[in-house]
Design a protein that fits this description.
Helix content is 25%, strand content 31%. The protein has 253 residues and is of the alpha/beta class. The protein folds into two domains: 136 residues, Rossmann fold (3-Layer(aba) Sandwich), CATH 3.40.50; 101 residues, LytTr DNA-binding domain (OB fold (Dihydrolipoamide Acetyltransferase, E2P), Beta Barrel). Strands 2-1-3-4-5 form a five-stranded parallel sheet, with helices on both faces. The chain has a five-stranded antiparallel sheet with strand order 10-9-8-12-11. The protein has a three-stranded antiparallel sheet with strand order 13-14-15, with no helix packed on it. Helix 2 packs parallel to helix 3. It starts with a strand and ends in an 11-residue tail after the last strand. 38% of the residues are buried.
Length: 253
């Protein structure tokens, strides 16, 4: 069965699109809904869906940011972008875009997208992007964003203020997120899927649904005998597992 996730920052619209998909494509299994870019990354890593419907404008990481983070991975889903904007302008990007849907999503337009997706999934290869789609997406401009630079981390009755530039990696630990530097480990209550939305995607890469690493802290990436990747972090003995959804980040150039 073909699987999909839907991520839109408006929960009502995410549910509405799921209902439209259920009616128009009963064989499709929508395994999860999300409402932010960070949540989209976590859901892709957890479920490895065949298709991801991503809102371009989401809090923190945009749909385009998500596409960039998973680009090149064998486990990356085919992407359908959802947007309310058809005329703004941005930088070119490399992503496996199959199509895009303009809000509000219309049943007739969705039927065209489903036909393309069925064709792409039946061949097992990414469908070529429509030149008009590429042109439209290259004209979408993301607003300038400010990213998190400091963290207030609790340690007993004290609070440590840690610059994000000191962080080696973040990792989900039960109800907390561990903030690991070269000389200490502290905790914040913000879930990793929310925290990643506040981090600069050019400085921090999600490599697993439970791990986000600072790119400059990567010393090397190692493969075991079955091809699974692990990251050796500078200043730490811990090896960070890379899930299949994010392995494309580390293809040799």
């Amino acid at each position: 069965m073909t699987t999909a996730i839907v991520c839109d920052d408006e929960p009502r619209l995410a549910h509405a699109l799921r209902d439209l998909l259920n009616a128009a494509w009963p064989e499709l299994n929508v395994v999860a809904l999300g409402h932010s870019g960070g949540e989209a990354l976590s859901l892709i890593a957890e479920h490895e869906p065949d298709i991801a419907f991503l809102d371009i404008r989401m809090p923190g990481l945009t749909g385009l940011d998500v596409a960039r983070q998973i680009a090149g991975s064998d486990a990356a889903p085919r992407i359908v972008f959802i947007t309310a904007y058809d005329q703004h302008a941005i930088e070119a990007f490399e992503a496996r875009a199959v199509d895009y849907l303009l809000k509000p999503v219309r049943a007739e337009r969705l039927a065209e997208t489903i036909a393309r997706l069925k064709g792409a999934t039946s061949t097992g290869a990414p469908a070529p992007a429509d030149p008009k789609l590429v042109e439209a997406l290259q004209k979408i401009s993301s607003a300038e964003r400010k990213f998190l630079r400091w963290l207030n981390c609790g340690q007993g009755s004290e609070i440590d203020v840690i610059a994000t530039g000191e962080v080696l990696f973040f990792q989900s630990r039960d109800k907390y997120t561990a903030v690991v530097t070269a000389d200490k480990e502290r905790y914040v209550r913000t879930p990793l899927r929310d925290l990643v939305n506040e981090l600069d995607p050019d400085e921090f890469w999600q490599v697993h649904r439970a791990s986000v690493i600072r790119v400059a802290a990567i010393e090397r990436v190692m493969k075991d005998e079955v091809g699974r990747m692990r990251i050796k972090v500078r200043g730490s003995q811990e090896l960070i597992v890379v899930s299949a959804a994010f392995s494309g980040r580390f293809r040799q150039m």
